[in-house]
Each structure stands twice: as structure tokens, then as C-alpha cells.
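Input chain follows. Return C-alpha cells only.
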Amino acid sequence: MAKGLLERMFKLSERNTTVRTEVLGGATTFVTMAYIIIVNPAILSFAGIPHGPATVATILAAVFGSLVMGLYANRPIAVAPYMGENAFIAFGLAPMGIGWPQLFGAVFVSGCGFFVITLLRIRSWLANSISASMKHSFAVGIGLFLSFIGLYETGIVTSFVTGMPPQALLYPNSTVLHAPDVPVKIGNLKSPEVLLALFGFFLISMLLYHRVRGGILLGIALTALLGYMVGMGRPPRALMAMPFTGDYNLAAIAFKLDIPGVFKLNFLPILLTLFLMGFLDTLGTLVGVGAAGNMVDDKGNFPQIERPMLADAVTCMFSGVIGTSTSGAYIESATGISEGARTGLASVVTAALFAVSLFFIPLIEPLQYLRYAYGPALIAVGVMMIGSITKIDFNDLTELIPAFATIVMMVFTYNIANGLTAGLVIYPLMKVFAGRIRELNWGIVVLALLCSVYYIFGLPH
């Protein structure tokens, strides 16, 4: 009976999947993105937001957003507070003296904007106006971005300045730091963490090669177990803690947003930046993850994209109300999709696991520091996502150059929005100067103008 209900709700047979596959995919997505439970509050604390309540708000946003995505949009894409937007709030806006109530107000207003343009089908019109080559470049860029995150988090690749004395980075006879001539270098391959990460990547790769069901999740678990066995982990402070009480009382930040303060003239560049970052992050993630999971059509369009976009918009508003940063579709959903997830049941499973984690925050906390366990999964997913590069038109420079700009700017500036905006600005310029203006549509022109505004009047970072 339950299986029949799930079949009707999520159309499992129609999408050639099973309950077991969806549960596995949802669990895999949760494991690879659960770090947000720790990382998001840690980043927002730099903006003066209390750590405990921020942790609860982060989890609630993930539960709410993933449930809406699963039950309404029926897509295997989890939703949670964005990395990048949280850093922009903490390190870009808070130092300007902007209080977090006003920041949460901006998050809410951005969500309202997303909601309106989605209902008017403007958002999907803009998404469908992008060429197939550009859409597949989103998938490639996100895949490489994920791989870079995994390589850096595990220590396989590290900053060039690692291990250097501070004096080596100073200009002569000055107290000012200079940028290193080489930004990154190979990590310490003798480090236990790096060795565990390399083992984890090899293990996951072999499990995927042999088509072992749950290979990514199994690889993460076995690598973490091995790490604990050799002493590379610390025990939790406690097993459980009640949410909404004590250090985890949400009342300190929920419903404290300042909406009127958002509509001041000097705040418009900030609102524009948050709006464009959220819009383009979601667009790039949906198209990129959709392409990786064969959920796009022959033109690279995401069918019924309005539904996941509405789920994203509603969650963004919810995030501002409860006290956390801009939320949206998560690129780590690609890990669950790679395990075969194709319906919203996977997102519901992810939401359920986040809900359970509300009561186990002290237990989960140490797990989020096991970068050697979840980092290899990000690298492996990146490997699978770069297959979309074969669908980029390499014989047409007016398609290839914008796609290339999208990929390299996304990876080398460590920001998805920078890659998307750069590619979307360059695309129409290439067509115009190549004398092929007729190949442009109004949607891509509007996107290019919006992205230009981001660089001219916004706060790119």
C-alpha cells in the first residue's frame, strides 16, 4: 500500500527508478551536504549571528526547502542555505556596518522577487533563452568547482602559502601582504588526512566502476570508519540536544528581519548583488545538475523548471524569516542523482534526515570535520559531471569562448555567480562582433544586461 502511494506521488516507474534507489540517493545527498549544518553557522557568526540559533535555522531551511522541492516539484534536488551568499553576508556586508536584521530582510525581499518573476514565467523564459552549449558549460564548471572544493578541503591541493612564515608574504620594508606568485600547490601527500582522502577517492572510484549500488555513500562510510580506527576523529560532546531550547533557541533571530531598511537607495547595490547571485546560482545548479542527471531535453532545457524555481523562491523567503542566508538548490544533489535518484522522494528523504539531525547536533558536529571522508565524494561527482563538456560546440568559437569563460571564472574565482555572469556577458558580444546577431534572442540580451549591472553597480566577489 505504501509503495503504491509513493508510486502515485512521485511517478517512480515513469522515471525508471525504485523506492530503494531514491532512499539511497537522498541519503547520499544528505551526507555530502550535511557539512552545511556546521559551516553555515560558523560563517554567519562573523556577522554577529548567534551560533546555536543559526544552526537550527540552517537545518530548518534545509528541511523546508527539500520538502517543498520533493513534494511540489518532484525533483531529486535538495535545498539549503547557499555557500557563497553566506560568505558575502559575513565578510562582505557585515564589515560595512550592516546589521543582520537588515541582511535577513534582503534575503526575504530577494525571495519575493524570485517568486514574482517565476509566477510571471520570466525566470523560466530567461533560463530557456540560454544556448545548449552554455547550459552544459554550467554543468562542467560546477563539476570542476566541486572537484576543486574536494581537493582543497581534503588537503590534496592547498594554498601556496601553507607552511610559510608570515614574513615571506610581506612586501619589502612593509607590513602589507602581497599575493603569492603561485596560488595553490600540491598538499602534503604524507599527511594521514591526505592519504585517507586519496584512499577514499580510489575506493569510491572502484565502487562506481563496478556499479556498486550506493558506492559513493558506502565509500564515505568506509573511509570515515578507517579514519576513526587510526585516530583521525574526535568523539562528540553529547549524543543529543533538544532544539529550540537553551543554546538552540531560535527566538534570538527568527522574525527579526528588517524589511523597510532594505529599500533605502544606498542598499540597492547590495540587494541587486544578492538577487543576481541567488538567481544565477539556482539557474546554474538546476541546469548543471539536470544535465548531469539527464533531466534536460535535447535543447538543454529543464522541463517544468518553474516548479523547482518556485520551491527555491519560497525557501528563500522562509530563510529570511527564520534567520539564515539565501537558500536554493544545492550542487551536492548531484551525488544523489549519480546514485540513480530521479524523483522528489530523494529530496523528501534528505529533508527527513536533516529533520532528524535537529536532535543530534552534538553528535553530528564531529562528523562534519571529517573532510577526508566527504571530500573524495565531491571530487568523484565532479569527474562524472564534466562529461557534459562533450555537448559544448567546440567548432563554434562564439559558443566555445563564452562556455570557456563560464567554466574558468567559476572555478578560479571560487564563485559560481562570477562564472555565470562572465559567460552570459561575453556570449552576446561574441555573436554581435561575429556578425551573427540574428542568433540572439531577447532573453539572452536581458540576462547579459543584468549581469553587466552586477559588475558595474553590484558587489562582485
